[in-house]
Amino acid sequence: MRIYLLVAAIAGGVTWLVTPLIRHVAIEIGAVGEVRKRDVHTVPTPRMGGLGMLIGFVVAMVFASRLPFLSGLFAGGYQMWVILAGGVMISLLGMADDLWDLDWMLKLAGQLLISVFVAWGGLQIISLPLGGQLVTASPSLSMAITAFLIVASINAVNFVDGLDGLAAGIVAIGGIAFAIYSYIIARSSPSYASLATLIDIGLVGICVGFLLHNWHPAKLFMGDSGSMLLGYLITCASIVMTGRLDPASIHASIYLPVFMPILLPILVLFLPVLDMCLAIVRRLAKGQSPMHPDRMHLHHRMLKIGHSVRAAVLILWGWAALIAFGSLMILFFKAQHVAIGMAVAVVVLTIATMYPYLKHRIPELRAENMAMEAARSKAHHAAAPGLESGDDAEAGDAGETAANVHESGTKDLGPVVP
């Protein structure tokens, strides 16, 4: 574990050191994002911070390849080098978008090509849990599933990258949870060395190193070069661990928990995937392109409720941690205890999420109720004099009627006989 922490520290330290240089380069070459209608920031800010994250990750992996404990992960095959090559390509594609604002179809095509290249290079999901057993997928199906997961995660992280520190924090939380998960699985193998754990640890390191420059108010944005890289790496780590289980030698009932990370977009990337799905449905319902920008993302809604940027980021981090670590706790505690703990956490986070809205809405409701009561009281007092006049008139009419009856009765009786 100490070696993994050393690799994470190197990744974070290098990222933290080179990011100011990347910021200067971004300003020089014009990679500065103009303020758009959907943006939260009000000052043009340099992008392309993903280049610093890429440098930090590559340096950490090269350093890890020289360590005796981890060198076997690199010498045993070329899978890690394929992952690094794909990371460089996906980050370069994001840098091109940071500079020239590529058309979304062109960017999606590039993501798909890179994902297919990585899958063709050996990063594939070979086995799937179906019907209580592990089933080997065909090569074409494996490549298709792998490419789909990579592209989906890339765009999910890209969609949620709207507030300072939000995307880096969510991915770091997911990376920590998944690194713990993969480390536990690796302990059952002859060697504790795990390529999935190594990727996750490096991922967490570059996220933390970049957060030191990206916390609100951010000095630099990661841009698509960073968000696409994070989505790519966290998916690669998941596929590395889950993609090559041998269905002939492994019983599904024992290793079925290892397939939980194959649902990575639903677990550790739940919020980004939810935000992406809601955005796609919302835009298609309006007859717009799925990539059409708007101000209806989850982080925009948090700001609309009344949260500050920092409060919104921290609360969304809390939701991400609840989902990521909640699934992890099932390995250590009884499901009933985990469910109770998660229920309590849901209540706390719900209150924290809705607090600004309730803080302003409750006084408004009280004021509205008081105004309604005052209006009713005023209407009652206005109607009261009319009611009194009506009663007097009815009483006068009754008296007059009685007098008439008396007079008419006297006439009908005739002369009174003594």
- Number of strand elements: 4
What oligomerization state is this entry in? single chain
- Give the overall shape: globular
Number of helices: 14
Keywords:
single chain, disordered C terminus, 14 helices, mainly alpha, two-stranded antiparallel sheet, two-stranded antiparallel ribbon, 418 residues
Summarize the structure.
The chain has 418 residues and is mainly α. It is 72% helix and 3% strand.
Description:
The protein is mainly α and 418 residues long. It is 72% helix and 3% strand. It has 14 helices and four strands. The chain has helices at 2-29, 50-65, 68-75, 79-100, 104-120, 139-160, 166-186, 195-214, 223-242, 252-255, 270-285, 298-305, 309-329, 335-413; strands at residues 32-33, 45-46, 127-130, 133-136. A hairpin with a 2-residue loop joins strand 3 (127-130) and strand 4. It is globular and about 95 Å long.
